[in-house]
Amino acid sequence: MKRIISSIFLLSLVFLWGCKKDKYPGGTISPFIAIFDLRNMDKGAEVTLTKENMLGSGKITGIVISDHSGGNMPAGLLVLQDQRRLSVLRGLAIALGDEARNYAPGDSVIIDVEGGILKRVNGILQVTGITGADVTKVSSGNNLQPVPKKASDILNAPKAYESTLIQINKVGFDPSYPPGSTYAGDKTINDGFGNMILHTEAGAEYANKTLPFMANFTGIVFTAPDATPQLWPRGEEDIMVTAATAPKIAPVVITGYLTDPTSTDANYEYIQLMATKNIDFAVTGFSVVTTNNAGANVPTGFPTNGWATGGQRTYKINLTSGTVSKGEYFYVGANKNIWGANSTDISSSKWITKMYATEDGDGFGTKTTNLLANSGNAAGIAVFDKTVVDVESVPVDVIFFGGAGSIFTAGPPAKGYRITNTDYYDVAHPSTQEEQPFFMQGSNTGKLAFPTTANFSQLGGVYNRTTGRWTTARALKSVPLTATSTVVEIEGATTIEE
Question: In angstroms, rounded to a whole number, what is the distance separating the alpha carbons of residues 338 and 408?
């Protein structure tokens, strides 16, 4: 009986609750649709924009990035970007005709796009059918910073970056362009992470200027009719020349190293190098310097004399005998085994040897059983085109790997390990051009990871000896080794091109 009464009572509550009038007013639809969502409506066919297909919204809002004053913009396009959806930056072009010139970068605008048509025109996704009366300027002078990106980012996701303002740094031009070539037209550029097209209209203010060796480019990404992304600097102010002429070519580049051989590290670690030209070391002496910054290594603290600090911190090996040909691998180390004691003998390759575990370095460096660190603080390798190395000496190539440690102090005076312009380091900051001659100074923070145990650290890339640039930046690949591994397994990843 109690169960029956309880059931009737519960049913009564449900009935009363269900019959109670719902006074909740519901949510209010935003008048603004995010550019992210609007772009996602593009499926290849024209779309007439309505409140129904814009989820109840009818307007977009964003910050203007287009600038027609420099002469390098698609005619009649007003371009803006926003981050309304999940803080993801997206941009969109609005076909506004001559009135697009009335707006400047940093203007905040609201645009009524209801009734407009979303479609691609000459490759560029845009909204057409919009007039000046549909645009309201809210404010001016809003902060607008280009987003630093690599060419590979744009090439891998062109639609994500179309109509957004980006910056690509350390950009060089196709070396096949003859001296005196100008910006006008489509030019192939490369930042070490891919080739892109830099587009300049014939009427742009900088169109007839000579191409520099290297520059940083700010611009808007537009899609060409063939669907490839292009970078359009809006004017000369979007170009920062970082090198008018070609830098010094590195005669020798670092292509790999073994930090953790089987059995003992003593006299079995080695460095793999490649020559970018024919070298007779008896005529032109070189040197290789390693640095191991383990906390207990002396002298402790910051490296007062840089690569020439000596002691347990840096060790120098002179290269003063033998020859090597352009594109040829050669090795610097002690015993000529691929992976430590009792492993494959690779003495058939070219070697310059130094028994570092039993002999002090050439000029500085205490004999050591651990030439190349395999854990802990940052370690590094530098190549010099001379045998006399001091605190002011600048290497021709350099890499670092590992952790942190007492590496650099701004001082004054500044103390640290000098770098050179490579795929990882810049003697001047890529964006500001402020001097930064040391590792861990400014943007020079790039370093490779320690390899896993029993692996050779192979640094594959493409080096152009005409421009002195890595057109494909070196990437670390850990190559597993065994006692029977052969030299073929650790060579072949680096290419020298003209």
Answer: 34
- Grade residue 27 by pLDDT with cuts at 50, 70 and 90: low
Predicted local confidence at residue 411, as pLDDT: 94
Q: Give CA–CA dist 298/315, Å, rounded.
A: 12
Q: Which residues contact 70 (CB under 8 A, 6 or more apart)?
A: 204, 205, 206, 233, 234, 235, 236, 237, 238
Q: Which residues contact 63 (CB under 8 A, 6 or more apart)?
A: 80, 81, 82, 105, 106, 107, 108, 109, 142, 144
Q: What global pTM score does this model have?
A: 0.68
CA distance 383 to 380: 10
d(CA 410, CA 438): 9
236 vs 163, 171, 204, CA distance in Å? 19, 16, 8
Question: With 90 as the cut, is the pLDDT of residue 452 above it?
Answer: no
- Phi and psi, residue 464, nearest 5°: -100, 115
Cβ contact 354:332 at 8 Å: yes
Confidence of residue 11 (pLDDT cuts 50, 70, 90): very low
